[in-house]
Design brief:
This protein has helices at residues 18-29, 61-74, 85-93, 95-98, 111-114, 117-127, 176-191, 250-262, 296-300, 305-313, 334-343, 348-356, 372-392, and strands at residues 9-14, 35-39, 53-56, 77-81, 102-103, 134-137, 153-157, 171-173, 196-200, 209-216, 222-234, 240-245, 267-276, 281-288, 329-332, 360-363. The protein is of the alpha/beta class.
């Protein structure tokens, strides 16, 4: 990459939730101070004193393009950090219009196809990485093609659609009877253009999920990488990160590298695996082609992937990091931990382990030098905790 004038370059974070705020914190800690935020109007990051520029966008490429042009009037070059799949899709739609003045962290030739979970599983089949046995449902009649699968089943949209369409992220079905009851809903969603991946459920709870995360450039070089595991999820076994650690076996690194290369992916990429105790294999669940919610686990254990992207994109020397595996480091999101106490029966044992175990603990949001995001999170905790309590006792 050609060297850029850093005074006239900014880092742009899309979306200001925990993943966005973690990017802001890492960049600021690494002395990258020209930080901009585009979000829907209210998020944790919007309250941060580390953000120098703010703009409001919706879920359309048109508003994103409009605000990018405004930001370009202030900065010659923009290094972009998407935090959800729709943002990646919108950036891909704008690629020809903005790539001259923006660094877009994905392969424009493969990113849309590679975001499809069934394509990811086909890739696993080709390169010999384990994955759950799966059926792809593109048409209503495909819903009858599950004879080769063993219940329970997990059903997910093949690409992330819950940001724009009223569709579940994950549907867990224990029996054929439950599946038959759900077929009408699934058929209706398929007729609306949603495709599904129907997979055999890998037994075990959410303490068995691991990830490999790297920054890979356009020359197929992995510049930095790390591995870790989710300690638990919110609000259940099929939810999103609650707390995480830097612990993972070497096979996660090996399989992760293989998948990233086979998908020809660029930028920050994260294959996520679940351990199957029945055969001792780590099986791919999905591959995220952008920063996921718990990526700061890598940063606090010594690997600065977002700094890596910025330095690579601006043509400056990239620091090569070795992840600290010498001690257990817990990255704790109380915004999800506390509601989990209300939402999940017998969660106290996980709460104690996540918050008080490990040789080092890092809070996801709390920072005395940047206190407003934490104060805003207290409001969110109160709302989420009340909602979790009501749902647990069937009052909502």
């Amino acid at each position: 990459m050609s060297e850029k004038n850093l005074d006239k370059t900014c880092a742009l974070v899309l979306g200001g939730h925990v993943n966005g705020y973690s990017i802001v914190k890492e960049l600021y800690e690494q002395e990258i101070k020209n930080i901009a935020l585009f979000d829907p109007g209210k998020s944790l990051s919007r309250f941060s004193n580390k953000v120098m520029y703010r703009a409001v966008i919706d879920n359309t490429p048109e508003t994103l393009f409009r605000e990018l042009k405004k930001l370009h009037q202030k900065y010659e070059y923009i290094v972009i950090y998407p935090t959800d799949d729709l943002q990646v899709e919108n950036l891909h739609a704008l690629y020809d219009e903005v790539s001259d003045f923006c660094y877009l962290p994905f392969n424009p030739d493969t990113v849309i196809q590679s975001s499809d979970k069934f394509v990811q599983y086909e890739t696993c089949e080709r390169i010999g990485v384990p994955y759950p046995k799966t059926v792809n449902a593109k048409a209503a009649e495909d819903l009858d093609s599950i004879e080769s699968l063993v219940f329970p089943l997990l059903i997910k949209p093949s690409t992330r659609k819950d940001l724009t369409v009223d569709v579940f992220r994950t549907l867990y079905l224990e029996t054929l009877e439950k599946y038959q009851e759900s077929k009408t809903l699934l058929a209706e969603l398929i007729n609306k253009g949603i495709e599904f991946v129907i997979s055999e459920y890998i037994p075990g709870d959410d303490t068995n999920i691991y990830a490999y995360t790297c920054f890979r450039n356009e020359n197929s070089e992995i510049l930095n990488e790390w591995t870790g595991k989710k300690l638990t999820q919110y609000p259940d076994n099929y939810g999103v990160f609650c707390s995480a650690s830097n612990e993972a076996p070497e096979i996660v690194l090996t399989q992760g590298r293989a998948i990233v290369a086979a998908l020809e992916a660029y930028g920050i990429v994260e294959p996520e695996f679940k351990y199957d105790y029945r055969d001792g294999k780590f099986k791919l669940m999905e591959t995220n082609l952008r920063s996921m919610m718990w990526h700061r686990t890598g940063s606090i254990s010594g690997v600065k992937l977002h700094e890596t992207q910025f330095k690579y994109a601006t043509g400056t020397a990239v620091n090569h990091y070795q992840q600290d595996k010498s001690k257990s480091i817990h990255f704790v999101l109380m915004l999800h931990e506390i509601p989990n106490l209300f939402a999940r029966k017998s969660y106290w044992k996980h709460f104690k382990h996540n918050v008080w175990s490990g040789e080092k603990r890092v809070w996801a949001i709390f920072d005395w030098r940047d206190i407003k995001p934490f104060l805003y999170s207290l409001v969110l905790i109160a709302k989420m905790g009340a909602g979790a309590w009501l749902r647990r006792f069937g009052l909502r």
